[in-house]
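ok so I'm stuck.
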Amino acid sequence: MAAKDAAIKAQKEGAKSAKLATWKAKHMIGPIISSGWDFFEAIYYGGTMTEGFLRDTGTSFGLHAGGFYGEQRFGRFGYLVGSQLGSWVGALEVGLDLWYMMWLMECITWFSLFKLQKVLFVKHRPMKNLKLLRT
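replied:
not stuck anymore, here's the structure
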């Protein structure tokens, strides 16, 4: 009877370890697939190999770091949220968005100064203003 109980217990422990191994494999394969997807997405939309490599590497590090930190703090849900946020930050999505916003502000500033300069320049040309007044 002891051998039969030992076999049942071993079967239960084997099932638990198989479930844990499957779960850990998903933890390993998910970030690899996601980072590969970012690499091919960057190439598909006209990016260079360097951009693809940087997004791939950033996504991989962001997924692992965010997932690890989130799982330590909040469990499985923390892994999900942390890996998602880590992939956004790691793939330079947030950095590119901030860069685009800064570029937009620079363009707005440049155009407004250009218009202001044009207005001031016209006001300081009396001959042109006189010509406009005569007609």
